[in-house]
Design goal:
Layout lengths: L3 H16 L11 E3 L5 E4 L13 E4 L18 H10 L5 E5 L2 H4 L7 E5 L16 E7 L5 H10 L8 E4 L3 E6 L2 H22 L1
Helix pairs in contact: 2-4
Bound molecules: zinc ion.
Zinc ion binds next to loops.
């Protein structure tokens, strides 16, 4: 097994996120890079309320399950994780959310702009509520190459460590569980604020 500490910590994080609606019906997927540089990702079809560290499998940087996990299917969205680790090499943890408040902000749009919120300061490099942050929304696809290509095309818009997928959800990442979780919670909060203010 790899670095049990980070796998255990991420397991607790996944369970906590499930309790507040980020991963209904076995959806979403999570990964981390342990202290030895190994990449671990949730296997497919796990009820996130019952997540255990044994539900992580090791994959290669290209997304192939490594021994002894060759026969276990990784998450269907493994390719997205691999693309993020490749594009942002300091990434340690990648989180995913199917938060309904975020999902309803994505329909028919290519970006979502937030303006004037105090919690925008949770994002990398943002030091004031003044101004806008723009988060890319990419079309959903079951072909991970489509999503990877869209991310590569829009890499310059990914500096906040978050992007959305239309009618699907969003990803956050960071150099620790602490950072990735902070981004996920801040983004969920901003999306809820937009829903409440606009109804
Ligand atoms: Zn998803």
């Amino acid at each position: 097994m790899g670095d049990l500490l980070i796998l255990n910590e991420l397991t607790q994080c996944i369970r906590a996120l499930h309790r507040v609606g980020h991963s209904p019906a076995t959806s979403t997927n999570y990964s981390c890079r342990d202290g030895n540089g190994k990449i671990w990702i949730t296997r497919s079809g796990i009820d996130k309320s019952l997540m255990q560290y044994e539900d992580f499998i090791e994959i290669s940087p290209e997304g192939t399950p490594l021994p002894p996990f060759e026969t276990i299917p990784p998450s269907a969205e493994t390719g997205i994780h691999c693309a993020i680790y490749h594009m942002f090499p300091d990434t340690q943890v990648i989180l995913h959310s199917h938060d309904i408040h975020a999902l309803v902000q994505t329909v028919g749009l290519s970006r979502k702009v937030f303006e004037g919120y105090e919690l925008q300061k949770a994002f990398r490099g943002v030091i004031t509520h003044e101004g806008e942050i723009s988060i890319p929304i990419i079309p959903n696809s079951q072909d991970m190459n489509d999503i990877k290509n869209a991310l590569l095309e829009r890499q310059s818009e990914l500096n906040y460590g978050v992007f959305m997928i239309e009618k699907h959800g969003y990803y956050t990442w960071g150099n620790s569980i602490f950072e990735a979780k902070r981004l996920l919670e801040a983004f969920s909060y901003l999306c809820r604020a937009e829903v409440l203010l606009n109804r």
